[in-house]
Write a structure and sequence with these properties.
alpha+beta, 60s Ribosomal Protein L30, Chain: A, four-stranded mixed β-sheet, 7 helices, about 25% helix
């Protein structure tokens, strides 16, 4: 169980409340973290990670300075970094397959690091809130246990999760922090929100909406965003949702209807419309090849047309 806090191995825990009781400095660190102002991120330096995605790179990357993600309610945002190499990974986890995802995140960082050199793996967890269904608490605990059971020694530095990321607004529980970013060179992790969520925002949302598993979206060796190929079956029944009111969509398509950002419903409808316009996902991936995007000199992501 090699998860450490202040260089001490963590005891077995059965709840987040027990974790914060045993390690009160985590609670204070979470209060400090959630009080920080939202970072203003230049999209031309950003690699954005959507739900059920992760991306990893190193400080040598001249195309990506910041990795970020937001719109997390019950979801958790995970940053893992090796302090020696500076290799860093950010993931947006929704609990779909935590036990298989955590080893992939560790491997993404260690494969970019010479772990025999000085340095250690440091973990930052942000997300969830005190939701009525306790989905956040379950995910918090599963992520902690999954890292605790990993063979690598991992040091928990930031733990702003569930009850420590909760605020009551007009009688409703909500997350304090919905999004974060990590500076690839310094390793600093701070709260953030984003207006640009591309490239291929609708395609990536459709992949998640139709049940896609956790995806690695970035090839740091080639500096390419890589999407797919992914598959979904034609399902015209989902057109039903386009005619429903906001409350109905929130009730049935969100894990946390009262805590979603204001654009949740419109984003969901746009994703469904995209799927209806592309009922056969094969058409989006000629010759079953992924969509590839490279950073242009102006800082935008541009799709590479493959022959």
């Amino acid at each position: 169980m090699p998860l450490f806090i202040q260089n001490r191995r963590i005891d077995c825990i059965s709840s987040t409340a027990e974790l914060f009781d045993k390690y009160p400095h985590l609670k204070e660190n979470a209060r400090v973290f959630r009080s920080k102002p939202l970072a203003d991120i230049d999209p031309k330096q950003l690699l954005y990670v959507q739900q059920r995605e992760f991306a990893a790179t190193t400080p040598a990357d001249d195309c990506v300075s910041v990795i970020g993600s937001d719109d997390a309610t019950t979801c958790h945002l995970v940053v893992l970094r090796h302090t020696g190499s500076g290799a860093v990974c950010l993931a947006h986890c929704d609990g779909s397959s935590t036990w298989s995802e955590v080893p992939r995140l560790v491997k993404a960082v260690t494969s970019l690091s010479d772990v025999s050199n000085d340095g250690r793996l440091e973990l930052h967890l942000v997300g969830g809130f005190d939701d009525e269904s306790k989905a956040s608490h379950k995910l918090s605990l599963n992520i902690l246990i999954a890292f605790q059971n990993h063979k690598e020694d991992i040091h928990l530095e930031t733990c702003c999760i569930t009850e420590m990321n909760d605020i009551i607004v007009d009688g409703t529980h909500r997350p304090v922090v919905y999004g974060i970013c990590v500076n690839v060179k310094s390793g600093d992790v701070v709260p953030a929100s984003f207006t640009y969520k591309g490239p291929a925002e609708e395609l990536r949302s459709a992949r998640t909406f139709t049940g896609g598993q956790m995806a690695d979206i970035y090839d740091s060796s080639q500096r390419l965003v890589k999407i797919g190929p992914c598959k979904w079956s034609p399902n015209l029944d989902i057109a039903f949702w386009l005619s429903q009111d906001d409350d109905t969509i929130l009730k049935y398509l969100s894990t946390s209807p009262m805590a979603e950002p204001p654009y949740f419903v419109q984003h969901t409808k746009s994703t469904i419309q995209f799927i209806l316009e592309h009922p056969n996902s094969d058409s989006l991936f000629p010759a079953s090849q992924p969509q590839l995007y490279q950073r242009t000199e102006s800082g935008d992501w541009e799709r590479i047309v493959q022959q």
